Amino acid sequence: MPIKIPDALPAREVLENENVFVIGETKALHQDIRPLKILILNLMPLKIATETHLLRSLSNSPLQIEVDFLMTSSHVSKNTPREHLFSFYKVFSEVQSDKYDGMIITGAPVELLEFEEVNYWEELTEIMEWSKHNVTSTFHICWGAQAGLYYHHGIKKYKLDKKMFGVFKHTVNNIHEPLMRGFNDIFHAPHSRYTEVKLAEIEANKNLSLLSASDEAGVYIVMSKDRRQIFVTGHSEYDAQTLNEEYKRDKAKGLDMAIPKNYFPDNDPSSEPMVLWRSHASLLYSNWLNYYVYQATPFQLDQIQ
């Protein structure tokens, strides 16, 4: 089944060229089924790339999905054309009275700031509070996961000695949780962050469950005990070149950047990267949509509480 997106969204051409099943708004109007409504709060600076990453990850499902993109009104992205934002994005006041089956809150390049120093923190906390009663399940990514853990559960973030950057091995900590269904005992996922949350603090919190971790990258997937909040500290949605683009960007800025680990064959940046996480990403998002959104959401959206 397809993902329903605006007819003119730039990601559409990319996804169709990859044989991803998408459907434009015009054609979707003639289908008599209820799609899942997913809201994506996109806090990443390169919003068009992030749109494509997330839509690709959501596409491997038999469910029809209707996506709304949300941006903050207290901070306007400088890296995405304004006409794109005005064409495809809403602000919170436009969706505040709506309800959604699922929501994704992305990462953002503000890790080294204290949460309260982020200029849209107050707006973000309002949205996160709203999500508790207006969204069946919310999926938080990277800094978005740290922000959600801090706001909802009081979990602090800590600065790392160096950037956690590369593709790392992870293990499944709870094989019985449906989100982890079908996962290998060891799987890979990308990380790109300067901060972390502590394993001991997650395990000590009675309202949280640790689902996956890495010996090297630390906490990876955490879920609230009511299963309505999922926190993923890495970037399973990244495509093959994303870490490479980040590496080249930071090197061009003169930053002392290490080569992303376990990414280039023989650690040679002139080689094409190895994609070790694609199947994991597909499974993670399809499990979330199936078990935590589709099977948990009421048919009538206004019944979400």
Sum up the overall morphology in one term.
globular
The CATH superfamily is known as Class I glutamine amidotransferase (GATase) domain
Oligomer: single chain
> CATH fold name, please?
Rossmann fold
Calculate the mean pLDDT score and round it: 90
How many β-strand stretches?
12
Q: What's the story with the biggest beta sheet?
A: 12 strands, mixed
Total number of domains:
1
Q: Output the radius of gyration.
A: 18 Å
What is the distance, rounded to the nearest whole angstrom, between the alpha carbons of the first and last residues?
Answer: 27 Å
| CATH architectural name | 3-Layer(aba) Sandwich
Classified by CATH, the class is Alpha Beta
Helix and strand composition category: alpha/beta
Subcellular location: Cytoplasm
Function: Transfers an acetyl group from acetyl-CoA to L-homoserine, forming acetyl-L-homoserine.
Binding site for substrate: 163, 192, 249
Site (Important for substrate specificity): 192
Concise account of the structure shown:
The protein has 305 residues and is α/β, with parallel strands linked by helices. It has ten helices and twelve strands.
What does this structure look like?
With 305 residues, this protein is of the alpha/beta class. Helices cover 30% and strands 25% of the residues. It has one domain (3-157, 195-239, 285-299): Rossmann fold. The chain has 10 helices and 12 strands. α4 links the parallel β4 and β5 (89-90). The mean pLDDT is 90. GO terms for molecular function: homoserine O-succinyltransferase activity. Its main location: cytoplasm.
